[in-house]
Design a protein that fits this description.
By secondary structure, this protein is mainly α. It has helices at residues 2-19, 21-41, 54-57, 62-70, 74-90, 142-155, 159-174, 216-222, 224-238, 268-285, 288-303, 324-338, 343-360, 411-425, 428-443, 454-471, 474-491, 514-528; strands at residues 92-93, 100-103, 106-107, 135-136, 191-192, 197-198, 207-208, 254-255, 321-323, 377-379, 508-509.
Length: 532
Amino acid sequence: MALSKKVKKNKIKSLLKKVGVGFICLLLLPLIFLAIIYIESNIGDDSMLPVQNPDEVFSNTQFQDSIAQHTQKPEYFIMVKKYIEFMIVNGRDRYGKEHSPLFATTLDRYTGNAYKNNPAKAPKGIRDRDRTYRGANPSTQSGLYSLMYELSSITGEVKYKNEADKGVIWFWENCQIPATHFMAWGEHMGWDFFKERPIYWKLQSWIHELKGYGQWDRAWDLEPEACEKFAMALWNHQVYAKEGEKSGEFSRHASAFMHYPFWGKGFPSHGGKYIEVWAKAWQETGNKEFLKAIYTLLNYFEKNTSSISGAIRYATKFPDQYSLGHNMGLAKSLYASMNKLPDSLSKRMKRIADQTDSIYLSFNHEPTLDGKGFIKSAHVHTLEPGEYRSEHSGGRFSTKMWSIGYGASNHISSANSCLGRYKETGIEQYKELFMITAEAYYEADPPEAKVLYPKNFSGAISMMRKAYKITGEQRFLLKAVEYAERSIKGVMDSASPLPKASNKSDHYEAITGANGFMSNLLGLWKDLNDIN
C-alpha cells in the first residue's frame, strides 16, 4: 500500500514537471483576475445623497386632487404618480463621486437605497447573474421611462418627460463601451453607480445581449450619433460572419469589451430585434451598410428554413428544434420594420414572416383552464411537439397559466403574441386563441400560495383590458379591477410606493415587472374613465 502511494506521488510530480508551473499559473490567472475585480468592486466611495420626501419636491397636487374627486378608482392613478415621483427623487444614482439620472433596478423599499453588495434575496426563478443590483439597466427600466412620458401626456406637466429625457441622454452619452460601442444594458449587463462604469463583479456581466428597449425613437431624436454607433456595433461585433460559409451566423451573446462574437445560437427573435435596430438606423441615416446587415440575416434565416415543413430552426447548434415563440417574435420584428425599408426588401420580409402563420396555427393549442397550454416547441422537420434541444431533451414543451422565472412561459405571453399577429394579419384564428385564453383567466384566480411577480398580475390585468376592448363586455373590465385589487394586496403596502419584487419578497426589483404592473394600473384607470 505504501509503495502504491509513493508511485502515485512520483507520477504527480512527474506530471507537474511536464506541464510546468507556468502553465498552472496560466490556468489560475482567470480566478486571480476575478478575485481582484471582486475586491476592487467593493472598495470605493460609499457616500450618497440623502433620501428626500417626494411630496416636498412635487408639491403641486391640484391635478391629483381633481383626479380624486372626479374619476373612478383614482387610487390607481395616484399609485402610479407616487411611484414615478419616488423613483425620480430617490431611485436614481445618488451614490459615489458622480451622480446620474439613471434609475436603480433594485432598491430597499424602506430606505429607498440601492444595494452595493449583499442585496435582498432574489425572488424564486430569478438568476443571480441576471441581476444588476449595483446600479442601472435601461432595458429593465425601459417601462419606467415610458410611464414618465405618458404621465406628462395625461397631466400636461412636462417635468416627467424632461426627467425621462435626462436619463436617455445621460445613458447614451456615458454608457457606450468605447471598444465596441455596445451599451451597458441587456440581460446581464448594467451601469455601476458605485464605480461609475459597467458592472464588472460577475463574469456574465461581460456579455452583451440585446433585450427590449422602448425609447428608440426618443434616443434617435436626442443622441443620433451614439444610436448609429450602436446599430453598427450589432453588425460588426454581434454577427459572427458577414460572408462565407457561416455568413449571418450570430449568437445572442457577444463580448461587450472586445471583438469576440459567437455563433451557433442565432435565435430568430434576437435576430428580429437586430433587424429592427438596423431598419431604424437605415431610416435615419440612409447608410446602405445597414441594408446589407438586414439582407445577411434574412439569407441566414432562409438557409435555416426546413425544406420539408417551412419552419425556421431555432439555431444551428440545435438543428432539430423549432421554437414557436421565437418565430412569432421574428415575424413581429419583420412587420415592425417593413415600412422603414425599400419595397423589394419589405416584400421579402413579409413573405418570411407570413410563413409562420400556417405553421403556428397547425398545432393543437389548448390555453384553457385545464388544458395543456400553448405548444412552445416542436421538431423543425416533422413539427412533432416536443423539446429537441440536447440539454433540455424531454423537458416541458407547453405553457402554464402562472409560470414564473427564467425561461418560463405562461399562457398570457403566447396569447398576446397571437393578438398582435391578428392585428398585423387579420387572421381570425389568432383572435380566437386570444379570447379562449382570456376566458380561462376570467374564470381563474391567482394561486395565493405560489410565488408571483408583479408581471404575473399585470399580465392578467392586461388580458382582461384587451378582452374588454375586443368585445365591449363589461365583465372583462370588472375582472380587470378584481385582478388589480388582488395584485395591490399582493405586491403593494403602505410602507412604500414601490411594488415588491414578488408577493413573497419585501424589496423592489424591476426585473420582475414592476413597470408593467404600474403601466396596467394606469391603463385600467384610463379604461374605467374613458380616457384615450
